[in-house]
Amino acid sequence: MSTGAARPGTTWWPLEILLPLLNLAAALVVTGILVWLLGADPFKATSLLVSGAFGTSEALGYTLYYATSFIFTGLAVAIAFHGGIFNIGSEGQAYIGGLGVGLVGLAFGGLPAVVVVPLAILASAAFGAGWAYIPAWLQAKRGSHIVITTIMFNFIAAALMTYLLVNVMIQPGQQSPETREFEPNAWLPRINDWLGAIGVHIDPSPLNISFLWALICAAAFWVFVWHTRWGYRLRVLGFNEEAAVYAGVPRAATIILAMSISGALSGFVALNEVMGVHHRLLLNFTGGAGFVGIAVALMGRNHPIGICLAALLFGALYQGGSELNFEIPTLTREMVVVIQGLIILMCGALENVFRTPLENLLRGARAKATP
Fold first, then answer.
1. Helices H / strands E in the chain, number of each
2. Is residue 4 part of a domain?
3. 8 A C-beta contact, residue 190 and residue 45
4. What is the CATH number of the domain that holds 124?
5. How does DSSP classify residue 168?
């Protein structure tokens, strides 16, 4: 898997920028052909998709709302990737992070927001990290395969949350498996309310201040991975485990640290969904964001800037796809899933199809530019 490292003899940064764009363009071309075969105009469909995602302040708000969860899970998957760890359990870790947020919202919702929100951030991180710690410890200490254990823990998390919401935490007197609504102090403010308070009026949307927290996490990710001793150890372990151990990098501690941070980042999804939108804990609030995070990390080349841009793309597909289906009924929501699948295919499994021609092109351009 690529971690954004340079290959000998190449100018890596144009390659790492241009290659995902080329893969995305190829995926969109194939999608356009499929749309045409379904009897729709691919150019009109693209226009509707873009306008549906960015055409109004409301549409942009929904796009950024979806992108917020994808930034969290993309960063979560990426930090594990940097250590050579394939964390498939972001979905379950986000789910358990929601349990932490739900307990804070139910128990402390009557306290001032300046107390409740930090408590919720700490709880989501602690519960997500704790859920990731177990498979991390099993890999580091017992040699268990991290992919298998994290997949299993996704199912365990789903079963645990179902039991708790159906039998323990359900609001008395209702049939739907969800808790009671939190007190308003346990709601995250929405961006349109904040802007309205200073005289800037935009259409209401679910976009809330967890989006700002996602950007802060992306900046902290960059500092940690590339500007701290622990981040250096993590990258060395990911490049060559044997060399890292020989150089004195504590393998077990580094794996556990990386997975714990990954789980904490996944847990922040609950801030966006549980505190920011639903204001209660309910089943399946993650909506598959943990799995989308894998594609976001791959397409973003495990770099926070790339992850934010990839999350924005997938957020646009989610929001624009709804408008596309409304205007062109033959292009159903499943078609949007097909588009996502093609992007994942081109940027993941087939990411190196264009690498050699692009490397040769860059070498030729560099040779001509060199006196």
1. 16, 0
2. no
3. no
4. 1.10.3470
5. I
In a domain, 37, yes or no: yes
282 by DSSP, 3-state: which?
Answer: strand
Cα-based distances in Å from 160 to 156, 190, 191, 263, 348:
6, 30, 33, 17, 32
Could you tell me the two tokens for 82?
């940097």
Asked if residues 286 and 273 have their Cβ atoms less than 8 Å apart, the reply is yes
Structural domain boundaries, residue 95: 12-352
Structure tokens at 165: 């919401």
Residues 6+ apart with CB under 8 A from 339: 27, 28, 31, 317, 321
Q: What is the Cα–Cα distance from 353 to 189, expressed in whole angstroms?
A: 45
Higher local confidence (pLDDT), 359 or 117: 117
Backbone angles phi, psi at 178, to 5 degrees: -155, 160
Cβ–Cβ < 8 Å for 308, 29: no
Average pLDDT over residues 43-58: 89
* Residue 65 · residue 207 · CB < 8 Å: yes
Q: How large a percentage of the chain has pLDDT more than 90?
A: 63
Whole-model pTM?
A: 0.90
- When pLDDT is averaged across residues 319-332 and rounded to a whole number, the result is 79
Which pLDDT does position 371 carry in this prediction?
A: 64
Number of domains in the chain: 1
pLDDT value of position 25: 83
